[in-house]
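Why do we bother with a discrete structure alphabet at all? Because it lets us treat a fold like text: something you can write down, compare, and reason about line by line. To make this less abstract, here is a complete entry for Nitrogen regulatory protein P-II. Read it the way you would read a sentence in a foreign language you are learning: slowly, and without expecting to understand everything at once.
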Amino acid sequence: MDMKQFPIRSFDERVQFMDYTWIISGTIYDGGSEKLLEALRLREINECYFYNVASTPIGKKTVAGVAESFDVETFHVLVSADQADNIFEFIYEFCEMHEPNKGIMYMNKLSKSTVNLLPDLEENSQTELAS
């Protein structure tokens, strides 16, 4: 049996990859990700977002019709390796994950990430954009 060779991907040499980025992800069963993101932004962690997830409780009897649901949110926070443990601990305490049925969190190292630096706009360039 002949094994097919996958083409070797060549990356753009102008793009600089970082190998020290971690992602902290979690699910909060009672909601509250908005407050968490505000607290993280006060600590200058801006690479974070959340979204709502449709969910129903496990083990509850349901009746015909619309099932009971509750507010569940999933969040993701990107941090550098030197901040990862401290931010993970902060989120754990802030969301009270030590209490039962509050949520779940985990942390993974990203294999690659890039920096997205926006250029500084000068007054001349803003007038060019306006016209």
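What the structure line is telling us, in plain words: The longest helix spans residues 81-94. Strands lie at 17-18, 21-28, 48-53, 72-80, 103-109, 113-114.
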